[in-house]
Amino acid sequence: MTFFKTRIAAFCLFGYLGTSLFAQSPINLPAQVGATESAKPFTVGEKFDYRVVQSFGLRGFAGGLVGAAIGQGLDSPSEWGQGVEGFAKRYGSSVGGNLTRQSMEFVMESALHEDPRYFPSEEKGFKARIKNVLLQTIVARTDSQGHRIAYGRIVSAFANAQLVNTWQPASTDSVGNGVLRGFTTLGSDLGYNFLQEFVPFMRPKTLRHH
Q: pTM here?
């Protein structure tokens, strides 16, 4: 039950942020992206390299530790217990879930010609930069330098959340848990965008020149 309540809280937070800023048709969201830093489009090989780094770099392993620590603190899933064994199961689940999600994103972004990177805002105001963080959680730059809804990111978040159900115990393996897990994943993407916007060394090397 604690796990379920935590996911509901994440859903409500993400929903509040989204509705408060984007109170209009999603079709119009790509047009709201302001001036952002530029970089050459990624090749398919570069998109693959990017996803390898996201799987096995800082985000993959540090994110797994954070996810496992939260699960350990909440004793969720309760079937996995506490101690080293429980932590190891939660860490393995977090890392494994991230790996499968990154794989899905690579395939979809390559097929749909979406750029996987977050592009920091060139505007100086805090409000404008926060808006950019929120927008680029659900909007992607295309290989042709346009913008559109980030189908690869959004679909992979929810599809992978259901895939993770295959190794979850009974208390956390429902479709509803998967949906809430998908929103939590997008919330994690939002947090990672925030870090890249305000902490330059968190960005890919191609976008650290500002």
A: 0.85
